[in-house]
Amino acid sequence: MSVYVGIDAGGTLVKLAYWKDGQLTFSKMPSTEAQSILDELRQEVNGEAICITGGKADWFAKDLPPATKRMVEFEATTLGVRELLGAQNPMVSSFVLTNIGTGTSIHYLDEHTSERATGIGLGGGTLMGLSAMLTGVHRYEDIVEGSLRGKRGAIDLTVQDIYVDAVPPIPGELTASNFGKAWSNREAAQKKDDQLAAITGMIGESIVTISAQIAVQYSTNDIVYIGSTLSSQSSLKQVCSSYTKIRNKIPHFIEQGEFSGALGALLAVANSDVSQIRKDLKNRWILR
């Protein structure tokens, strides 16, 4: 039975997409815990059946068979996104792709082309760093839970806060100034959960603002968001979704989108089994 492996080696996480015994499986682990998996792959899988991509691809590739294929991260990600989107929402063919990793990379894709539009140094790394600095919370799960409980009203200044007792010329719920109340309302701004919510809101709204501007530039209304920080319950996903709609664009979140790079790498070496893998993307994969 054919075995193929796609690896997306990032700075924080290593993600795998592998095809074995007719089954497509996705898995991820911290980069610091990936060595044992790579040792197993080196012993069990031929290099011709492995493709690695990502920022740490060269670092991890030295522990893989010499014949391991390398793939440019952008190419692997766009290939994986096209396949996942085709399986889940084939009507979306022209879109901005916003990949929220440690930072954020923004691309434009249509049926024939793909190009990098811009990038921003805000992303999951910013969320972790600012949360640790301002609140002392270091675990990602605790950051997500706290931000979901928190309220931004005591910290962020909205347009409606400025137009007191008046109808503002733009939607009142828009943020006029992130953390704009914190200096004058210090006691109310001390709750960690509220601070986590405000941090998440600032990052999400900044990413959406730039993504929406790129969407206008390329004359599309669809923005596809991928990344490990966009778990089903994360407040960052909620911010991106709601704020994209406020900006009159349509947000899309791909199931297993965080594995786009690993999937693209897998498809690059899957040869004759690509058609079966495409079928499995619709309803027959395992997440571990």
From TrEMBL:
GO MF: ATP binding; pantothenate kinase activity
Keyword 4Fe-4S appears in the UniProt entry = no
Gene Ontology biological process: coenzyme A biosynthetic process
- Cited SUPFAM superfamilies: Actin-like ATPase domain (SSF53067)
The record's listing under Pfam families reads: Fumble
A cellular component annotation (GO) from this entry: cytosol
Tell me the keywords, alphabetical order. ATP-binding, Coenzyme A biosynthesis, Cytoplasm, Kinase, Nucleotide-binding, Transferase
Supply the name of the protein.
Pantothenate kinase
Tell me the organism: Aureibacillus halotolerans
